[in-house]
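Lab notebook, bench 4. Still working through the backlog of constructs that have no structural model yet. Next entry is a single chain of 166 residues. Request: give me the C-alpha cells for it.
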Amino acid sequence: MPSRATQTSRPVAGTRSKDHQHKFVNAWKPNGRSLPDTSDEKTMTFDLASNILRTGAYFRKRAGRRSTITRYFFVGDPHSSQGFLRYFQTHKAASTTTPRGTFDLLDLVRATWDGEQRCVTLTQSTKSDVSERGLVDIPESFFQALLFAVHEAEFRRQHPEIASAR
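Model written out:
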C-alpha cells in the first residue's frame, strides 16, 4: 500500500513545510456553525474521508423553490471538482445509472454548513434556477467526511503545483 503522502496532497505530519501547512490551513474556512477544524488531520484524514464518501449514504435533499424534500443516495468523488457530490434514487442505481443530479466542489465551498443540525444550504450550479437547496439529515460520519474532503479538494484546486508534486 502506498504511503499516505502519495495518496493525498498532505505530507505526513512533521514533514510538511510551514508554507505548505499555511496554504492548507487557509485554503478554505467553511461558512457555518458548530463545525470542526477541517485543517486538523488528527480529526479525520483525507483517505478516510474519501472512503466514506465513495461508500455513500442516504439523506434528504430539499428542492429549490419547491418545498419538496426527497430522500436520495449520495456518493462523493473528492478527486473531481465537477460532480463532486452525486445523488441517485437508490444505492443500487449508484453503480448502474446516471445520477439524478450533482453538486460541484464550488457549490460546496460556497455553501453554509450547520454541524449541529448536520445540514448544508447551497445553490446547485448545474441547475438553471439559482434558488437554494438543502441537504438535510446527513449522517454524522458522512457530514464530517464531506467537510474534510471539500477542504482538501479546495486546497488542491487552489494549489495544483503542490498537489501534483505528490
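Notes after review: Residues 140-158 form the longest helix (19 residues). Helices lie at 4-7, 18-25, 46-55, 105-109, 140-158, 160-164. Flag for follow-up if needed.
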